[in-house]
Write a structure and sequence with these properties.
The protein has about 110 residues and is of the alpha+beta class. About 15% of the residues lie in helices and about 35% in strands. The strands form two sheets. The chain has a five-stranded mixed sheet with strand order 1-6-7-4-5. It has a two-stranded antiparallel ribbon with strand order 2-3. Strand 4 and strand 5 form a beta hairpin.
Protein backbone atom coordinates (compact mmCIF):
# COMPACT_ATOMS: atom_id res chain seq x y z
CA UNK A 1 0.00 0.00 0.00
CA UNK A 2 1.12 3.55 -0.56
CA UNK A 3 2.19 5.48 2.50
CA UNK A 4 1.58 8.75 0.66
CA UNK A 5 -0.18 9.92 -2.51
CA UNK A 6 0.99 13.25 -3.91
CA UNK A 7 -1.28 15.08 -6.37
CA UNK A 8 0.14 17.37 -9.06
CA UNK A 9 -2.46 19.52 -10.80
CA UNK A 10 -0.34 20.73 -13.72
CA UNK A 11 0.53 18.72 -16.81
CA UNK A 12 3.68 20.82 -17.35
CA UNK A 13 5.18 20.36 -13.88
CA UNK A 14 8.27 18.17 -13.61
CA UNK A 15 8.03 15.13 -11.34
CA UNK A 16 10.82 14.79 -8.78
CA UNK A 17 11.68 11.77 -6.71
CA UNK A 18 10.57 12.53 -3.15
CA UNK A 19 13.58 10.56 -1.86
CA UNK A 20 16.55 11.95 -3.86
CA UNK A 21 14.93 14.93 -5.67
CA UNK A 22 16.03 13.69 -9.13
CA UNK A 23 13.69 14.90 -11.92
CA UNK A 24 12.32 11.61 -13.26
CA UNK A 25 9.99 13.50 -15.62
CA UNK A 26 11.73 16.62 -16.88
CA UNK A 27 9.99 18.48 -19.70
CA UNK A 28 13.13 20.49 -20.54
CA UNK A 29 14.96 17.35 -21.69
CA UNK A 30 14.56 15.58 -25.04
CA UNK A 31 14.50 12.26 -23.17
CA UNK A 32 12.01 13.58 -20.63
CA UNK A 33 11.73 10.30 -18.66
CA UNK A 34 14.83 9.71 -16.52
CA UNK A 35 14.08 7.15 -13.75
CA UNK A 36 16.27 7.15 -10.67
CA UNK A 37 17.07 4.15 -8.48
CA UNK A 38 13.94 4.81 -6.39
CA UNK A 39 11.53 4.83 -9.37
CA UNK A 40 9.20 1.83 -9.31
CA UNK A 41 7.17 2.76 -12.39
CA UNK A 42 6.03 5.57 -14.62
CA UNK A 43 2.62 4.94 -16.17
CA UNK A 44 -0.34 6.68 -17.70
CA UNK A 45 -3.94 5.58 -17.96
CA UNK A 46 -2.95 4.33 -21.43
CA UNK A 47 -0.12 2.06 -20.22
CA UNK A 48 3.32 1.85 -18.69
CA UNK A 49 6.24 4.01 -19.83
CA UNK A 50 8.72 2.46 -17.39
CA UNK A 51 8.56 -0.34 -14.83
CA UNK A 52 11.36 -1.52 -12.56
CA UNK A 53 12.10 -5.21 -12.17
CA UNK A 54 11.38 -5.09 -8.44
CA UNK A 55 7.90 -3.66 -9.05
CA UNK A 56 7.03 -5.93 -11.97
CA UNK A 57 7.95 -9.00 -9.90
CA UNK A 58 5.14 -8.12 -7.48
CA UNK A 59 2.51 -7.46 -10.15
CA UNK A 60 -0.23 -10.06 -10.61
CA UNK A 61 -0.08 -9.55 -14.41
CA UNK A 62 2.82 -8.60 -16.64
CA UNK A 63 2.99 -5.21 -18.31
CA UNK A 64 2.46 -6.95 -21.67
CA UNK A 65 -0.74 -8.61 -20.38
CA UNK A 66 -2.02 -5.27 -19.14
CA UNK A 67 -1.20 -3.53 -22.42
CA UNK A 68 -2.97 -6.32 -24.38
CA UNK A 69 -6.12 -5.99 -22.25
CA UNK A 70 -8.17 -3.12 -23.67
CA UNK A 71 -10.38 -3.10 -20.55
CA UNK A 72 -7.41 -2.86 -18.15
CA UNK A 73 -7.39 -0.05 -15.62
CA UNK A 74 -3.72 0.88 -15.14
CA UNK A 75 -4.38 2.82 -11.94
CA UNK A 76 -6.18 -0.16 -10.38
CA UNK A 77 -3.37 -2.50 -11.48
CA UNK A 78 -0.88 -0.22 -9.70
CA UNK A 79 -3.01 -0.04 -6.55
CA UNK A 80 -3.28 -3.85 -6.44
CA UNK A 81 0.49 -4.27 -6.02
CA UNK A 82 1.60 -4.68 -2.40
CA UNK A 83 4.78 -2.63 -2.02
CA UNK A 84 5.70 -1.44 1.46
CA UNK A 85 6.36 2.26 2.07
CA UNK A 86 5.85 3.29 -1.56
CA UNK A 87 4.97 6.84 -2.57
CA UNK A 88 2.65 7.48 -5.49
CA UNK A 89 2.68 10.74 -7.47
CA UNK A 90 -0.45 11.29 -9.56
CA UNK A 91 -0.19 14.12 -12.07
CA UNK A 92 -2.67 15.44 -14.58
CA UNK A 93 -1.91 14.83 -18.27
CA UNK A 94 -3.75 17.88 -19.55
CA UNK A 95 -6.56 15.69 -20.92
CA UNK A 96 -9.71 15.44 -18.82
CA UNK A 97 -9.63 12.45 -16.45
CA UNK A 98 -6.21 11.24 -17.71
CA UNK A 99 -3.23 10.95 -15.36
CA UNK A 100 0.41 9.94 -15.11
CA UNK A 101 1.29 7.74 -12.14
CA UNK A 102 4.84 7.58 -10.80
CA UNK A 103 5.80 5.29 -7.95
CA UNK A 104 8.84 5.55 -5.67
CA UNK A 105 10.36 3.52 -2.85
CA UNK A 106 13.74 3.45 -1.10
Amino acid sequence: MYQQIIEIHSAEENIRCPICQHAVVDWTEEQYIQPCEHTLFIAMDLGFEFVSDRFEEKMSRSVDQIHDDEAANVFQEILNVEFNDAILVRSELGIENMYRYTGFAA
